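ARCHIVE CARD
SHELF: 3
SLOT: left
DATA:
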Amino acid sequence: MGWIVVSLSQVVLFHSTTGSKFMPSGTVTPPTFVMWKSLAQGENLGWQRQWFGYELEPTAAFNVRGVGICEPMFNSDVYRSIGTGDWLIMFFHEAARLDRDNEAPSVGPNTLILWPPGAAQFYSWGRAANVEPHSWTHVEGSWVSRQVEVNRVPTGVPITIDDEALITCPLRGLMDEMTQNESPDPIILRNLFENWMRAIARHTHRNDSQRRVPARLVRVREFLDEHFAEATPLNNLAQIACMSRSHLCHQFRANFKTTISSYVVRRRMSIAQRLLFDMDRRPGEIARAVGYPDIYQFSKQFKKTFGISPTQFRKQNMQ
């Protein structure tokens, strides 16, 4: 038996056996098993969950931040109004709730959903805690966005996947590469993810003829991924896209569902999260590394994005 912290912005504890909820008080025993932490090595629960932090390169094209396979859904409601700063890809093996306003399950078994950075996330079990399994991964980097876009994988909407092996096998591949090798191979990881997205796209689209994101917009996004810490003039981006500034802004938002400035902020904040795992880096250094010469401006934006300050985030994840 143990305790689980199910929210970073509002700490709510759930008992892992009864599923009952408790608000923290002076008499509550400190949790020993918390969200964002990995399972003890060798612990055999019939499901897997592993988080990664120190192993990651914040500016890499692809990072696997965490993987869970057939993990029970302990907590009744998870709601993150601005997401987690990365991509959350989640598969519900049984019926689940994705509608905050409806107590009944809103999707059936074998449902996949991809939440991009900055997108609101809500999910809950359909029947009871500690029973219904879900599989998931938190990933980040330009490689994720590119594969989702190139393969036209729908985001933010439920996708029915007939064969759960299409989800669990690739997740095990990512898990094995991250845990069974002293130095995970970034090329192998990217190939595993690309093949996964291609398989999902083939299953999802079959005979449809939806258009792909224009290559010149993809080039703009790749430039922003590489130069996220710079204040790139809009005129320069328009030249890359070979279109007017106003047309670029319109097309970027239409294809990526966000503005250029918001995309850059999300990219900066996602990388700042990773850098905060490095205790040798001072907050001011991290602020400058992600494009904020003023540490107060950086802290303000970080708190606006994640609901907590950089210092609080570091304390919560280093305990």
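SLOT: right
DATA:
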Amino acid sequence: MMEAEWLACADAWRMLESLYGKVRPPRMRLSAVACCRRVAHLLPDDERCRRGLEVAEQYADRLADRQALARPHAEAEAARRAARAATGTCRTTSAHFAAEAVAWASHPTRRHYPELAVTRACTAVAYAS
């Protein structure tokens, strides 16, 4: 995908696929974080998700280490579980999927499954609309 196509693209999955094999894991994590930031307004009113997103970005930028990411990820995961328990409307289900996107983007392993973060972010948008 050329730069002009990237800038005009609205398909997050296609954008992510274009990166496979071309960029290193930190860039993939940044892409997942960027998708989560696009749905941050859908996150539950829970600071744990926002902290997970912040530290995931720091980790991708090499401003935090894996140990620093472990706790915010666990907290984002706890916020995701709480959001899941509260689902019932499109708004709360959207919040659950946005929180799940953050939980995947902040996963502390090298192979953190950015495609799952993107998929959950897209699902959050679908429920919100």
